[in-house]
């Protein structure tokens, strides 16, 4: 517990009044000294009785870098009091997490911006309780943290690059796609290549073709590794390539130095969660269908008989915060070298 600047000023006034009372008599100064002493005593008692609140923190959804969301803190306490709240923010997140509120009655909210891929903990909150006059303050630490994930950036590949990568899967399943089995309604994760446009035109819903043993098709195996200082590059390239497959109805098995993830068609969440936490290290499987190797100089991608840089695969019009824009077309846009 300590005095605020205002509290020190009041103490100074009291000390001056007492000094003057010695020379000129105390009666004329009672109107100053007694109220000031009473105010200080009441402030000390109020702040001493301020309890540590239970904090419930509402955090934004997990997202990609440069996304801004709102963090809201609510306080559960038996006695309300004015305070300054400071929520601890780690490196990788930006925000003005300090402000004044009435603990116990009001909430405290602030904006936070994700800056870098990773898993981060918000909190604990430091609460500087004060009295209603702002004379005394006491620092309290409210336990409890909450975590957020910042996913790697996901970029859009050029049309030619996407077609080249899809051909890896087509080569695996083409023998099993020769036998047509029937038609059914489109579900999330189905490839647009399988849409039966004539049937779709006659109905309001998309209709897709189904093939014998299609559900037994193997996944595309992607392996990624990086120098310790280039793990963000690795994660960005792996996320982009993985989502290119799974959002097109193609299952993926992803191997990184941090582990293995098997994602079904349309399931991008566990891939992004894994890549948000993934560290650098050696490529775990050099014989994978797609091999990503990242260094400070460049990120290289090898698939089939081709090898290129990740930047050459990305559509030049790019993306912002995970929202895709259109890309280049034409096979020459990939800059792929073929052996």
In short:
The chain starts with a strand and ends with a strand. It is built from seven helices and 22 strands. It is an alpha+beta fold and 339 residues long.
How would you describe this structure to a colleague?
Helices cover 26% and strands 32% of the residues. The chain is α+β, with helices and mostly antiparallel strands. It folds into three domains: 2-45; 54-150, Immunoglobulins (Immunoglobulin-like), CATH 2.60.40; 159-170 and 218-338, no CATH class. A hairpin with a 4-residue loop joins strand 17 and strand 18. Helix 1 (5-24) packs antiparallel against helix 2 (30-48) and helix 5 packs antiparallel against helix 6 (269-277). The protein is elongated and about 110 Å long. The N and C termini lie far apart (73 Å).
Topology readout:
Layout: E1 2-3, H1 5-24, H2 30-48, E2 54-58, E3 68-76, E4 81-87, E5 93-95, E6 98-103, E7 108-114, E8 118-122, E9 125-130, E10 136-142, E11 146-150, H3 159-173, E12 180-185, H4 197-202, E13 207-211, E14 220-226, H5 231-246, E15 252-256, E16 259-263, H6 269-277, E17 290-294, E18 299-303, E19 306-309, H7 310-313, E20 319-320, E21 323-324, E22 337-338
Helix pairs in contact: 1-2, 5-6
InterPro entries: DUF58 (IPR002881)
Pfam family, one: DUF58
Transmembrane segments: 7-25
